[in-house]
Amino acid sequence: MTRLSVNINKIALLRNARGRNFPDVRAFAERCLAFGAQGITLHPRPDQRHARYDDVAVLKSLCVERSAELNVEGYPSSEFMAEVLEQRPHQCTLVPDAPGQITSDHGWNLRAEEALLRATCEKLREAGVRVSLFVDYDNVDIARAREFGADRVELYTEPYAEAHDSGNNATMIEKFREAAGRATKAGLGVNAGHDLNLRNLADLLSAIPAIEEVSIGHALIVESLEFGLEEVIWRYLGEIKRAAQ
Predict the structure, then answer these.
(1) Which position among 50, 90, 164, 194 bears the catalytic label?
(2) Alpha helix positions (H), 88-228
(3) Catalytic annotation on 43?
(4) Neighbours of 115 (CB within 10 A)
(5) Most CB atoms within 10 A, among 6, 27, 169, 190?
């Protein structure tokens, strides 16, 4: 069954806005796990405007204690890689973010970035870290991620979310299903993330049961403002179970 990893960048953003440790990122992540989430995702960016590099060690310790997985996302800069290789999270998702980028909005160009990705995947796998590459559904080179040494790909799902909102997502779901099929045929696991929410998650997972993990942050935090964190996580877990039936 698909695993739910909660991205807590928005909690880190609130913390940083006041210059002190409130809300406490570790305490929030601990509650997410206590309510049933199977993992925590953190995406520190170069300016550390929300998640910070020193959050990685704190959350790795928590996830080990709770038998959960920590997924650290980001562009493989020297600073990012130094932290990941030291802390060795369970998974590292490599994302082609430019400095100052507001949010992730595209996957890797696997041909143009082959040298970087091969070298980075090798370092991570030598450190015992599972590697996932952030990719677009229409990338015809998805299978090459396996050649580079990646274990999984994460499908960038904003196009699916936009199509779902328009009420005309059948064609887009089929395109994502084809992308997942190319990945699994190449021996890659499949994750998914970006703009997934309580309205659109079950339809995606029903169509693509091969998805092993979804990482959800922005929508989950916004929905928690209305319904409360525990209720929202239970709703997500319910949607995942419903899709698996």
Answers:
(1) 194
(2) 114-126, 144-148, 158-166, 170-185, 201-207, 218-227
(3) yes
(4) 9
(5) 6
Nearest-angstrom CA–CA distance, 112 and 101? 20
Q: Which of 30, 50, 69, 73 is catalytic?
A: 73
Report the C-alpha dihedral over residues 125, 183, 108, 7, rounded to 10 degrees. Answer: -70
Structure confidence by residue, pLDDT tens digits, 45-83: 888 878 999 999 999 999 999 999 999 999 999 999 999
* Residue 194 annotated as catalytic: yes
Terminal alpha carbon distance of the chain? 10
pTM: 0.96
Pairwise CA distance, residues 155 & 189, whole Å: 11
- The closest of 40, 16, 43 to 27, measured between CA atoms, is 40
Q: Phi, psi at residue 200, to the nearest 5°?
A: -110, -10
